[in-house]
Amino acid sequence: MPAADQPTSSDFPFLKTALTGKTVLVGVGNPLRGDDGVGPALVARLHGRVDFVCIDAGTVPENYLGKIVKEQPDTILIVDAAHLGAAPGHWELLKKGDVVESGLTTHSMSPKLVIEYLETETRADIYLLAIQAEAVAFGAAMSPAVSRTLDQLYEFFVSDVAQPPPAV
Hints:
It is a single chain. With about 170 residues, this protein is of the alpha/beta class. The protein has one domain: 3-Layer(aba) Sandwich (Rossmann fold), CATH 3.40.50.1450. The chain contains five helices and five strands; from the N terminus they run H-E-H-E-H-E-E-H-E-H. The N and C termini lie far apart (about 35 Å).
């Protein structure tokens, strides 16, 4: 999805309908590498604003697998920068069959391995929200295109997808 206009639920119907039941949102990436930090940035923005369990897994999602499984989610959404061969900021919602073993994300740990483990340990529907990166060099700032996509996804999740957490 190109990062152009502000999204509405009609722009994102497949994403909205995918997130059912108890959802765990997992941000993966390194904020010190520009666009690679888009996953943790989205999780940080949404934490406390939506009724998802929000986990910033940084560059080591494998260290958070136990925590994810313990939540007994219905849906797991992993958000990560990727190499999709598309314009910067473009995003795709992928299932396990769409995720290749290497060359997709900006990390050495294969998202397919993480997804396969979570599949064996939960009954959750698992998705990867892959966002095309532009700038991933150490010390780079997030590119304008990915920053726009981050803003649009945040607005979409807050306004169209998740209800705020219950007041305590």
